[in-house]
Amino acid sequence: MNIEKYISSGILESYVLGELSEKECAEVENNLRQYPELRNELARIEDTQEALLMASAAEPRPAVKKKLMAKLDAISPAPRIVKFSRPEPGISFWKLAVAASVSIAIASSYLAYDYRQKWRKTESTLSDLIAQNQRVAEDYNTVNQRLDKIEDDLRIVNHPDFSRVVMKGTPNAPQALAAVYWNESTQEIYLSIQDMKQLTADAQYQLWAIIDGKPVDAGVFDNDFSGLRKMKEIGSAPSMFAVTIEPRGGRETPTLETMQVAGYVGKS
User: Fold this and answer.
1) What is the spatial distance between Cα 227 and Cα 139, in angstroms, rounded to a whole number?
2) What is the pLDDT of residue 114?
3) 3-state DSSP percent of the chain in helix, strand and coil, to 5
4) pTM here?
């Protein structure tokens, strides 16, 4: 069995996504039991798919209804009762009228103040709700954008015209791992990275395509992205891809001493 040809056929990606028939699944599982290389490749594919899906994770905000009701309860004072005593004998009507007027004025002033305070607090609560709704809308748009990005990435990963080239870590970075998805017809290149160390502000990673023994610049990048990143298109079929560390902005020729990952086209 040609292991490399079997891997490049994309059947393992289809197996992970559940797109195979029962017969095809049984065949894949039988091959997985026989060939440890296929099991290792399957684990890498599952890790890549999981990383893409986890990029959309967004922690939801707590419900605001309970918070609003608690605030309204807190600003609603207990009702106040104004008691009027029976007038004593000998008190004139005018004195009673004045006393009643003062009491009404005091009560009216208190009610006006009380409702003013309630209005101000309600207005503040309404502003908080509006701000929270705006944040929820922004979060919703962000999640939608992430889902769209994941859908686009999965379409490229599973497209039959894209070949996957795994770039493994060199002695400079044994833990590093990256992959290139290359379309021979359109010359498009998409890059996926894992475990690439953080660089200083004056340095960048640079992707190279080795064509006819010569390095061709495929673009610079930082390790601040998830999923796939589109790189520069190249002119013809490469035999190898590699990543080096260069000064920010890149160089015309690679610094081989800083090579981080490399992989041959047609090999995993």
Assistant:
1) 19
2) 72
3) 45, 20, 35
4) 0.49
